[in-house]
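Let us walk through a complete example step by step. Step one is to write down the protein sequence. Step two is to encode the small molecule, guanosine-5'-triphosphate, as a SMILES string so that its atoms and bonds are unambiguous. Step three, shown after the inputs, is the structure prediction itself.
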Amino acid sequence: MRVKRFVGKSMKEAVAQLKATFGDEAVILHTKRSRGGPFGLFGRPRVEIIAAVDVAPQPKPPPAPVNSSELQLLQQELQEVKGLLASQNKGTGPWQSLYEELIAGEVDPKNAQYLLDKMTQILPPGSPPEEAIAALKGIVAEEIQVVSPWDLSAGTRIVALVGPTGVGKTTTIAKIAANYALLAKRRVSLLTMDTYRIAAAQQLKTYAEIIGVPLEVVFTPRALTEALERHKDRDLILIDTAGRSQHNKMHLAELKAFLDQAHPDEVHLVLSATTKTRDAMEIIDGFATVLPLNRLIITKLDETSSYGMILNACRYLGKPLAYVTTGQSVPEDIEVADPNKIADLILGG
Ligand SMILES: Nc1nc2c(ncn2[C@@H]2O[C@H](COP(=O)(O)OP(=O)(O)OP(=O)(O)O)[C@@H](O)[C@H]2O)c(=O)[nH]1
Ligand SMILES: [Mg+2]
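Step three: the predicted structure of the complex.
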């Protein structure tokens, strides 16, 4: 804004000056009539106007011409950014239904997003849904580490099963023992340190008698070491343990005292497929802080219809899945873990 004072002998003359300088857009802020001379009494009359005008805006320079290849490049980059945002944005984008399927199967949301991100990295854009499902199954299968069944030709293998109560540890030991002793014709021994629950030892004793393998019940860590010594000519020694809560530090310490003496080649954590993922993670944390877990067994696949927990537990523990069990029948309801089958279960066979 510019402000200026105009003085004339009359109002007409002052306004004429104002218009000549500021044009018609000026705004009069103040007018004053007076006379010149001492005290303003005897001089000639004069008129003073103070007026203001907005400074005219500078015209904008015309936009620089954009050549079409630059425009194309910009559009392409914009598309890429949009795609990236879609993939990072939970479950949005073209694979929303796959994300929802994983979540419905109780795959942990973080795992579901991780799997889809991996899939979008390898899948060409615009691939048909069948290809997307096949790619996703492959990625799920890759995430489930497994191990080959024991060779048992290189000395005695000592394997302990641990886990929460009632998940099927004893039944699984009976299934493994029957398969190795009766079908693979291996020398198998059973040891149990479950003297906590009434009839626990009797349960395994019954299986041992039916399968025709020796069983010893041990009450102390030292007795366990001595029993292992007595069975050192065997191909496979399976150690059953009492079911324990992950929250009971004293029970876990007791378990550790036994296994520290036994130095098993493998400690398998047994979890039921019906366990909620959050609880499975707590169980893994509780047992893994005390014991050197190196395998996972998931039981009771026949008692659930959502299998995401298997993937969640495998990824969380970060150790191979050895077996899955699929029913109460001994010895048939057990399978060596097959990642493709599990991926089929999770994403619908
Ligand atoms: N449906 C089903 N039931 C199973 C499976 N495995 C074991 N069970 C049953 O689960 C129940 C508990 O099995 P156990 O083998 O005694 O479990 P555990 O882990 O040894 O139990 P504790 O020693 O008390 O901690 C029994 O009724 C078994 O028949 C399975 O794969 N599917
Ligand atoms: Mg038991």
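Step four is interpretation. The longest helix spans residues 68-88.
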